[in-house]
Specification:
The chain is an alpha+beta fold and 262 residues long. It contains eight helices and 14 strands. It folds into two domains: 2-136, Fructose-1,6-Bisphosphatase, Chain A, domain 1, CATH 3.30.540.10; 145-258, D-Maltodextrin-Binding Protein, domain 2, CATH 3.40.190.80. Strand 1 and strand 2 form a beta hairpin. Helix 1 (5-16) packs antiparallel against helix 3 (39-55).
């Protein structure tokens, strides 16, 4: 299957054209606190799911906008977030992405993150490196917080955690060069992989938020950990600290390990 990655990338790029439908983006439904879905989410998921199942009918499909109760995680599974950054899409903030991963026996073996607004296509295969529009990418070389740009996730679906999270943001802000907040975990991880930012962390991410980006970072020479400093896995929900070869260790040991586990 990994030899067919050009076909898979083409499907993702084609689906990305749906992001430009502002009428569909304006039709929203509230799923929970700060959690929205639009007609674009459903259209992208339907297109990608349909085309992948035509080519690979034996592979299961896990998507954000569907029930996934039937998934057998011991087999092969597509993991899709059709619009990572839906709130950004609603506001036409133009910082959203399609995130598609292939999971085999609970291990991510392929990942694609596509930002249709600037046509940046990130992809990685297990053991094959990470790429942006065909060029190999690598994480940054920053070693200290004082020379690092850190991207944060505010966990907007879980605003009850803000009282714990924001003091941590302040501590990190005081120690690093500056912080960023993009609203898309997939793009944050992609930006780590290509060295634009040195570290990223967020609590309560779903597997489809980080699966593809996690492989990008690891194949680009970086680390993806949980808040206790262990290698992040493929649990349904995880707290993620990602970055180059050193900064995630600093984040987990100095700041994030003190946060309570849910």
């Amino acid at each position: 299957m990994q030899t067919d990655i050009e076909k898979i990338k083409a499907i993702v790029v084609e689906a990305g054209k749906l992001f430009e439908n502002r009428e569909a983006a304006g039709h929203t439904r509230i799923k929970g606190t700060a959690d929205y879905v639009t007609e674009v989410d459903f259209a992208v998921q339907s297109m990608i799911c349909g085309k992948l199942q035509e080519i690979y009918p034996q592979v299961q499909f896990m998507g954000e906008e569907k029930s996934n109760d039937e998934i057998d995680r011991s087999g092969m599974v597509w993991v899709l977030d059709p619009v990572d950054g839906t709130t950004n899409l609603i506001h036409d903030y133009r910082n959203s992405a399609i995130s598609l991963a292939l999971m085999e026996r609970q291990r991510i073996v392929m990942g694609i993150v596509y930002n249709p607004y600037n046509r940046e296509l990130f992809w990685a295969r297990e053991g094959g490196g990470a790429y942006l529009n065909g060029q190999a990418i690598h994480v940054s070389n920053a070693e200290k917080m004082a020379e690092s740009l850190i991207s944060i996730g505010t966990s907007p679906y879980y605003k009850e955690m803000a009282a714990e999270n924001f003091p941590v943001f302040q501590s990190i802000f005081m120690d690093c060069q500056d912080i960023r907040r993009t609203g898309s975990a997939a793009l944050d991880l992609a930006n780590v992989a290509c060295g634009r930012i040195d570290g990223y962390f967020e609590r309560g991410l779903k597997l489809w938020d980080f699966a593809a980006g996690m492989l990008l970072v690891r194949e680009a020479g970086g680390l993806v950990l949980d808040y206790q400093g262990m290698e992040a896995g493929t649990e349904y929900m995880s707290d993620i600290a990602a970055g180059n070869a050193g900064i995630p260790r600093v984040l987990t040991e100095r700041y994030l390990g003190l946060l309570k586990r849910e």
